[in-house]
C-alpha cells in the first residue's frame, strides 16, 4: 500500500528541554511573544517559568492565563484580538490540549480574521499557509498529543456542539515535550488524559486510514500506557512512568494525525458538548463499548491490542474491552454517563450530533443513529 508521512512539527523530547526555549525563540527571530496558559499553571509557577525563559530572548512577553477546560470559541477570539493588539510574533502554548488548541485557533483567527467556526471540519484549503505567526507548544499533560496534531477542538456552548478545525497549517512549529512538567499533574487529570492517549492509539490502530507507520506508533503507545498509566496515577513522582506516558502521548498523537480517530471520539465530543463532561472522562466511559461494537470487523487488531496491553504489569488478561474497562476502574474513572451529569433525555441529541462527526468516516464499522443511540443508552 502507498501512504504518506507528514510531521511538520519539530519535536524535542526529554527531561529539562523546556530550558531550550530561549534558543528556540532566537532561532525564530521573535521579539514579541505571548504565553497562553490556564490559571492553575500560573499558580503552580510552571507558566511563570516559561515567561521568564521567554524574556531571555524576547523584548516583550505577554501572558494570557484564562484558558478554561474544553475551551470556548469566544476564548480563541479573545486571544486572537490580544495578539493583534500586541503585534505578537510567536505564541507559547503552555498546558494541556486546551491551552495548545486555543493558541492554534488564535493564530489562525489573528492572521486570517473572521469567526473560528468558518474553519470547522476537514477543510484544509480554507487555511492558506504557512501562517506567519509562529507557535511553540509546551505540553504539561500526557494526553491530547495536541503538540503535534493538525487538529483543534473548541466548545460552542451557544449551540451545544464541539467545533473541530483541521489543517496541517494548524500544527505547532516547535514542540518542547518535557516530562518533568507533568509531575505535578493531579491524579484525576493524569487518569483522564492517560485514557485519552489509549483511545488515540486504539482508534488510530483500527482506523480505515491506518498504515504500517501509524500502526507502529500506536502499538508503542499502547505498550507504554499498559505498563505505566496506573503507576503514573498512583505516584505522580514516578519519573519513568511520567516519561513513558509523555512519550506515549506523543506517539499516539502522530499516529492519529495520520490515521484519524473514530466512534469513541465522535460520541465523547457530543457528550462533552451537552453536559460539560471533561473530554478524557467521556472517552473513558465510551471506549470499552465502542471496542465491543467494532470488534466483529477488526478481530485480529483488537486481539493484538489486548496482547500488548496485557504485557503491562497491572492490567491482567481478557479481551481488549475488558482490559480497558479494568484499567479505567483502576485509575478511578466513572463508567456510566449518568454518573457525570448526562440526563437520559439528552441521549437522543447526543446520538444525532455524533452522526455529524467527520470521525465516523474513519471508524472501522459504520454506525447509524439507531446504533449510536443503542450504544449510549447502554452506557447510561
Automatic annotation (TrEMBL):
Question: Organism's domain of life?
Answer: Bacteria
Residue ranges annotated for the Fe-containing alcohol dehydrogenase-like C-terminal domain, each copy included: 190-379
- Which parts of the sequence belong to the Alcohol dehydrogenase iron-type/glycerol dehydrogenase GldA domain? 8-179
Q: Does the keyword Protein biosynthesis apply?
A: no
List UniProt keywords, sorted A-Z: NAD, Oxidoreductase
**Pfam families (alphabetical):** ADH_Fe_C, Fe-ADH
Against Gene3D superfamilies, the record matches this protein to: 3.40.50.1970, Dehydroquinate synthase-like - alpha domain (1.20.1090.10)
Coiled-coil residues:
none
PROSITE patterns, per the entry: ADH_IRON_1 (PS00913)
The family line of this record is: Belongs to the iron-containing alcohol dehydrogenase family.
Classification via PANTHER family: ALCOHOL DEHYDROGENASE, ALCOHOL DEHYDROGENASE 4
Q: Could you identify this protein by its name?
A: Iron-containing alcohol dehydrogenase
- Native species: Alicyclobacillus mali
